[in-house]
């Protein structure tokens, strides 16, 4: 077994690492295919568990966004209640307790503590209360919701909601800053367009802002779109009193923090804490970066999160939680579990740690800046 495991690991590592083996143009597509193939083959298998053993930490943080009954119609910007239920059932059958972020920190410091998972929901969507909370209540599972000030006050530049509405409501759309025209005949073409435009934006604030004239031209009001889906102050205050709910920070403006100068980046983080604490009348100790990739937040942002008084900062770097993370608590990894449909193997690869192994080409199991 160990011979097989060693060689498969080397083979996978080399193929994923060495783009010179395939022409540059196909290498990215091939790597993606290879990774998802490996994930499918190994995500929920004994071999996968063995390969990923190093990557299995003491805890696992999962990220959700919207919860939709119609996932396709909402362009896969959330997952179904059934998926949340499947995740909860899988965590339960693995014997992991679902805990709050404070309990997670305590368990990381205690070698005897049981394995755990933390469930996080970003952005303050109203459907979290309607569709997620009843399921969480059934399982007695706590949840942490990371809320940007601007979602509650409707002042956020929610380009992702504008983009979804634009693609849902038209059969053909021109995205001028991209110099692209998209024909939108059905759900798959709308989904494909959303992925391409989102990929084009990447972590570039200027590109996201360049969509404004397109939204205006189509008469889309972002504050109205935000009000349709996000909790307001009264709803959030009420939601926060639920015994299973912890509210965390998610910046004021929900922008790519790396694109802001020092003072603006710090202010965007710190003001959100002040806002939430005065609205909710209690300490807000935990934080998630609005975009948690390497390009969107790094060392500077991690220092600001601690300086603002938060105990944790959750990124979207892939990986599980290890005791070593107590020293880098403002760069904690999270695995996404809430966009579109997850196959059993994709879920398995998050649970056993294989996902980080594949994403990082078998790099350090303890995620931080990378
Ligand atoms: Zn967010």
Describe this structure in words.
- By secondary structure, the protein is of the alpha/beta class.
- Among the domains are: 175 residues, Alpha-Beta Barrel (TIM Barrel); 66 residues, no CATH class.
- Helix content is 48%, strand content 12%.
- It has 17 helices and 12 strands.
- The strands form 4 sheets. Strands 1, 4, 5, 6, 9 and 12 form a 6-stranded parallel beta sheet that branches. It has a two-stranded parallel sheet with strand order 2-3.
- Helix 2 crosses helix 16, helix 4 runs parallel beside helix 6 and helix 8 packs antiparallel against helix 9.
- The chain is globular and about 60 Å long.
- The two termini are 30 Å apart.
- About 1% of the residues have low confidence.
- Zinc ion binds next to loops.
- The site of zinc ion has 5 residues, from loops.
Query: What small ligands are held by the chains?
Result: zinc ion
Q: Measured on Cα atoms, how large is the radius of gyration?
A: 20 Å
Total helical segments: 17
The level 1 CATH classification of the domain at 92-154 and 230-341 is Alpha Beta
Element-level helix/strand string? HHHEEEHEHEHEHHEEHHHHHEHEHEEHH
Shape type? globular
CATH level-4 homologous superfamily of the domain at 92-154 and 230-341: Glycoside hydrolase/deacetylase
Helix content: 40-55%
Low-confidence stretches: 18-22
End-to-end C-alpha gap: 30 Å
CATH topology of the domain at 92-154 and 230-341: TIM Barrel
CATH architecture of the domain at 92-154 and 230-341: Alpha-Beta Barrel
Mean pLDDT: 92
Proportion in β-strands: 5-15%
**Strand-pairing-aware structural class:** alpha/beta
- State the total count of DSSP E strands: 12
Query: Mind describing the biggest β-sheet?
Result: 6 strands, parallel
